[in-house]
Amino acid sequence: xxxxxxxxxxxxxxCGSLLALRLAQRGYKIELFESRxxxxxxxxxxxxxxxxxxxxxxxxxxxxxxxVEKAKSICIPMLGxxxxxxxxxxxxxxxxxREGEYINSISRGDLNAILLDEVDSxxxxxxxxxxxxxxxxxxxxxxxxxxxxxxxxxSVIGDVIFGxxxxxxxxxxxxxxxxxxxxxxxxxxxxxxxKELEIPADENGKNQLSKGHLHIWPxxxxxxxxxxxxDGSFTVTLFLSYDEGEYSFANLTSEEKxxxxxxxxxxxxxxxxxxxxxEFLNNPTGFLGTVKCSPWSYQNKTLLIGDASHAIxxxxxxxxxxxxxxxxxxxxxxxxxxxxxxxxxxxxxxxRKKDTDAIADLAVDNFHEMKDHVANPLFKEKRKIxxxxxxxxxxxxxxxxxxxxxxxxxxxxxxxxxxxxQDKALLNLxxxxxxxxxxxxxxxxxxxxLKTIKEETNE
Length: 459
Ligand code: FAD
Known about the structure:
It is a single chain. The protein is an alpha/beta fold. It has 15 helices and 19 strands. The protein has three domains: 6-74 and 107-187 and 289-367, FAD/NAD(P)-binding domain; 189-287; 376-456, no CATH class. The protein is 39% helix and 24% strand. The longest helix is centred in the C-terminal third of the chain and has 31 residues, at 341-371. The chain starts with 5 loop residues before the first strand and ends with a helix. Bound molecules: flavin-adenine dinucleotide.
């Protein structure tokens, strides 16, 4: 392992770009390959999570690489959720009772472009667009590419290969097909897919929904969400079953049926989406799934990172954040002064896998919370108490959501364990009528609740 090693990275998405930048900053020489064209020159965003929620773990990774201020300049803070019922009534629920804790809506394309600009300006990295990895020889650390421009194949040999090529990783597929080692792998699809739509800005360029919220239309079996964009528009995402229930992607195939569905379930949103029929029929339906696998590495030659090693469903808004945190954790492992890439790769997975497994499970939990529970009275009561606890005891109480989203110094696995125990204790107190949430609680009463939660969670 030395600075002259030739490092090949497959994928110049969010994780691959940040990883390339960090390794270049550490003095390594990188060849970065991306199958798509340069997104700074060609618009390739249509229909694929146009904006994302960026929070503290992601910011930590960006800060490490010196790009956090640039990223923040294109962030729109979202202080909480705004829920919309079928009658068009709304209610707000903050993400935290503490000041200064919020998530950010950010354009995937613009963020990726910031990272590519930084990578481009670094002398240690060469970026190659339109080069699709089609084959990998693990033992030779050789990659076969197809060049979309020349329509020819070519191969490149390196010392180390990083697969930052996303949920459908070709490197991961080679781990499975080559059977060189015992590779455990699971892929679980959700029964729901997603489709993106748009609420444009009004004629004055102003946003038509509150800009400081992540909007949710929870309907039990399905939901709509909307995140703000810098130009006043909102990207709206429908999460709906593929083929089950009265309405599904399988049967919403005519203009009449689409309109009927939105008029019945989301009339207030429908009024703001002028091109609903065209967008619904033309925009792709995406699938959602969880990938867990192990080991992430092969000898001292290859490593999976980001979604390639741990794709998760998007309901905690953590996939990109976890991928940026991967780069942060990997950098910490490099600081340990280990001697070989193999030692580094093993140490990285040992440190990281329990946490990416945890956020994968939490993200599935949050799918049910968002589409259903957020409108449930018990859930609303629980969130209200949590907000009060965080407001009055900001150093002592952190909800599960806050630990995952804002406490980047707590690993996901700990946040999951502690957060679930707290949730259980709090829901028990509410169910046993030991808390009357309709009255505003005094600080002493809240202190008593905090004490009970701590006792129940063995703190
Ligand atoms: P990707 O972003 O998928 O990048 C992989 C790159 O590799 C791509 O550029 C691709 O073109 C390239 N590539 C793939 N195959 C090849 C090949 N064979 N050869 C060369 N290049 C290749 N995360 C959040 O943190 N917050 C959110 O709010 C959020 N919302 C989401 C909403 C939706 C609907 C979805 C689907 C995901 C969301 N995510 C969110 C998750 C987030 O998008 C991913 O976790 C993140 O993009 C992972 O980054 P990555 O670089 O590992 O993979």
